[in-house]
Backbone:
């Protein structure tokens, strides 16, 4: 069953975040992940949620998504993301 990592991002260091993106993509691919949404305009349809940036990743399974998040290759890019943006992240199993 597919799994989706959904991230709400508020970038606080744009130049640093661009460097993060360059490093993160290769780690996502290595673990079989695929970007479904990477930025783009978000329109609030209900409620008062106003995210500045949304990223959605698809992995083959919940386990594979967790392996990516906690892998050695993503350790430094993950620290970089924490320095350059405020993020909220969830993992959702799909169908």
Residues:
């Amino acid at each position: 069953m597919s799994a989706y990592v959904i991230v709400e991002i508020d970038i606080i260091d744009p130049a640093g975040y661009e460097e993060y993106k360059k490093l993160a993509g290769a780690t996502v691919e290595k673990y079989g992940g695929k970007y479904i949404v990477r930025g783009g305009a978000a329109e609030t349809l209900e409620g008062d949620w106003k995210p500045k940036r949304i990223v959605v990743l698809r992995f083959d399974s919940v386990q594979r998504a967790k392996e990516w998040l906690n892998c050695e290759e993503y350790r430094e890019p993950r620290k970089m993301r924490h320095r350059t943006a405020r993020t909220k992240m969830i993992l959702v199993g799909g169908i």
User: Anything to note?
Assistant: Helices lie at 14-30, 62-69, 72-84. The chain has a mean pLDDT of 96. Residues 4 and 58 are 5 Å apart (CA to CA). The radius of gyration is 13 Å.
